[in-house]
């Protein structure tokens, strides 16, 4: 720990109030350049505890920076993880209210539904598939609390990896019944194709990405639990959207998931 106890709680309040008040804030490392990754994960834990105090419930995990392209963009060699809470779940049949966001972006993801606890430091993609009841198409909406969506790795970890909302499509399949490692993906905005990709972009296979997170959690004596929903990490770059926009993600075999953002007025 390179920062002191009082300071971490101060950072938690700083980030939590930025989210609640929908305003961008200067990144934490501008003030605390010494912030380490372990400090950042500890702040993330306390940020989730803070949400729990306000009635949120932890329901799973999300991976970030799982594609080589995104890692290169950030100049890092590691993925990151954050937590999902029940209030982050948005429903496909309800319009999203843009005024709840700061500067949101949508990402195509694969959701995993976990059927059995899994913990360890040598967990493989195969072990993950073993405990996965279903996979489903998903969209994650990220909304960094930092100015212009710019941050260092420690900053984004502390900010729960930019987590804001996520949506899950209605087609759920056993991961054994499709070629999860090479699903083609097309993302459109208002009917225009804006991104294409393959599930292989996520560390070669989305289950490898989930295994990475389990092993990382294993290092601190944690794991994933039966009932968890896990977002694999984005299959392509994130796309900014605005009021009235419709975003649709289609995965081969797995089908679609979409949302429409209502106007801000
Ligand atoms: C960090 C979160 C990235 C993903 O799927 O890669 C993420 C960010 O880019 O703001 O959720
Ligand atoms: Mg994501």
TrEMBL record:
One of its GO terms (cellular component) is cytoplasm. Its EC number is 4.1.1.77. Signal peptide: none annotated. Residues 104-258 form the Fumarylacetoacetase-like C-terminal domain. Pfam families: FAA_hydrolase. Keywords: Lyase. It comes from the Bacteria. InterPro entries: Fumarylacetoacetase-like_C, Fumarylacetoacetase_C_sf, Hydratase-Decarb/MhpD_sf. GO terms for molecular function: 2-oxopent-4-enoate hydratase activity; 4-oxalocrotonate decarboxylase activity. This is 4-oxalocrotonate decarboxylase.
């Amino acid at each position: 720990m390179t920062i002191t106890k009082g300071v971490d709680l101060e950072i938690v309040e700083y980030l939590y109030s930025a989210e609640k008040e929908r305003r961008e804030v200067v990144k934490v490392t501008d003030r605390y350049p010494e912030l380490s990754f372990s400090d950042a994960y500890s702040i993330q834990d306390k940020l989730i505890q803070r949400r729990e105090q306000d009635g949120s419930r932890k329901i799973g995990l999300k991976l970030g920076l799982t594609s080589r392209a995104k890692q290169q963009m950030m100049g890092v060699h590691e993925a990151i993880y954050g937590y999902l809470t029940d209030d982050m779940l948005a429903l496909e049949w309800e319009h999203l209210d843009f005024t709840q966001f700061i500067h949101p972006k949508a990402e195509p993801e694969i959701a995993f539904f976990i059927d059995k606890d899994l913990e360890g430091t040598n967990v493989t993609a195969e072990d993950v598939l073993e405990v996965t009841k279903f996979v489903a198409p998903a969209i994650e909406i990220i909304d960094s609390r930092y100015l212009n969506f710019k941050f260092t790795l420690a900053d984004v970890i502390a900010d729960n990896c930019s987590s804001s909302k996520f949506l899950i499509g209605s087609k759920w399949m056993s991961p054994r019944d499709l070629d999860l490692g090479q699903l083609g993906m097309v993302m459109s905005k208002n009917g225009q194709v804006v991104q294409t990709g393959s599930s292989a972009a996520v560390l070669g296979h989305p289950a490898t990405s989930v295994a990475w997170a389990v092993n990382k959690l294993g290092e601190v004596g944690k794991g994933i639990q039966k009932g968890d929903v896990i977002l694999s990490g984005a299959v392509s770059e994130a796309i900014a959207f605005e009021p009235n926009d419709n975003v649709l993600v289609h995965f081969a075999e797995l089908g679609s998931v979409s949302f429409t953002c209502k106007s801000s007025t």
